[in-house]
Specification:
2 domains, mainly alpha, single chain, 479 residues, 17 helices, acyltransferase
Amino acid sequence: MLFNSFEFLLFLPVVFILYWFVFNKKLLWQNALVLVASYFFYGWWSWQFMGLLMLSTLLDYVYGFSVASPDRKRARFFLTLSIINNLGILGIFKYYNFFALQFQQGFGLLGIHIDPVLLNVALPVGISFYTFHGMSYVFDIYRGHQKPIRSFVDYAVFVSFFPLLVAGPIERANHLLPQVQRPRYFNFTRAMQGCRLILWGMFKKVVIADSLSGTVDMIFTNYHELNAFSLIMGAIAFSFQIYGDFSGYSDIALGTAKLFGFELLSNFKFPYFSRDVAEFWRRWHISLSSWFRDYLYIPLGGSKHGKYKAIRNTFIIFLVSGFWHGASWNFIAWGALHACGFLPLLLLNRNRKHVSDVVAQDSALPSLKEFWQMLTTFIFVTIAWIFFRADTISQAAGYIKRIVVNSMQQPSQFLHAPMGKGALVYIVPMLLMDWTLRRNERILAAPRNKLVRYIIYYILFALILLNLGKENSFIYFQF
C-alpha cells in the first residue's frame, strides 16, 4: 500500500479508531493490532513476499536468545548466522542477477560463454530496511546494548511497524522497542503534530516530487538533444524530486507514528543547507548513515588507527552505501564520488566541523561565507545525483560531458530560459518553507491565526487531492 493512495486515506483512520477506542484496554491488544495492520499494509502491495518478511523476523527473533549466551563462541556463531541469513536474503533477491551478469561478462572477455539462470522476480519492497532492522537487533544483543525480547509480537512490531516498513527510517532496537513495550496514551498535541507532518510530507511527495518527475524523466531521457542549461535544470529538478520524495515519505512515517504514540528517528534535517559533504551526510538519510557508521565503519576501526585505515574505511562505507541503493555500477560510482568529496575534509580534520550547529543559527539569512559553502556543496551533490538518476555510468558521463561541451560551444544559451524552468514553481516554495523550519525538522509550527491556519491546511489538502490519483511509487521503494 502506498502512502500517496486513496486506500491509505481509508486504512489510516480505521486503524487509528480501532487502536485508540477498541484495542486500548491492553497493550498486547494494541501491539497485536499494529502487527496485523502492518502485515495487511505490506501484503496489500504483494502478499507473495509476506512469508519472506515473516521468516526474516522469526529467524532473528530466535537468534537473539542464542546471541545473548555468555558463551561467546556460541554467541558469535549465531551472530554470524544472522548476518549470513540477512545478507543472503538481500543477495538473492537484490544482487544475484547483478553478479550473475558480471560473471557472464567476465567469462565473455576470456572467450568463454556462459548462460546464467536469472531470477525473474520483483525486488521485495522494504527488504533492505527490514533486514537491517533484524541485523541491528542481533548486533546490539551481542554487544550487550539490548536484551532479547520475550514477546514475539513486540519484536515483530519493531521489525514491521507499517509507517517505516518499506522505506525507513531504519530504527534501532534500543530506541523503538522500549516504546513498543510500554503503555501508550493518546496525546492531542502530539497527534496534531503528526497530522501536520503527514500533510506536509504528502505535499512534498504528491505535489512537488511527482510534479517534478515528468520534467526529470523527459530531460534525462532526451539529454543528448538538449542544451546545457536545460540539462543543468534537469539535474537540479532531480535533486529536489528525490528530496521531496524521500523526505516526504519520512515526514509521513514520523507523523503517522506520532498518531499511534511512537517517536521515530529523524531521517532528514534539511540536507541542502549543508556547508560541506560531511554535514550533508549527517542530514541526508540519517538512519542509514548512522547504521553504517555504527555497524560497519566503527567495527572496521573508524578513524582511530591512522590516516590510511581512516581513508580505507571511508571508501568502504561510501561504496557499500552506494551498492546498498542498487545493484548497478552507477550507484557504486555515486558512492565513490561522495567518498572523494568527503576525503579532503577527513585529511584536514574538518569532517566534524558542523556536527550540531545549524546554518544561520542566530540570524534570518546566511552569511556570504555560509551561502558560498551551501552553494558549492549543493553543486557537488547535484553532480553526484546525475550518477544516481542515470541508468548507467556511460549515460551519466554523457550527460555531464554534454553540459560541459555545450556550455563552451553555446555560452549565449544562458541568456535564455531553459527547458524545465517550470520546476522552479515547486522548488522555490519548498526551499523557503524548509529555511523557516531548519532549526527543528520534527515540529511544524502552525500559524497562530486560526483562520490563516485552516486556509493553509485547506489549500495543501486540496492540492494533494488534485494530484493523488497518480499514485507514483516512492523512489526508495526500489531499494
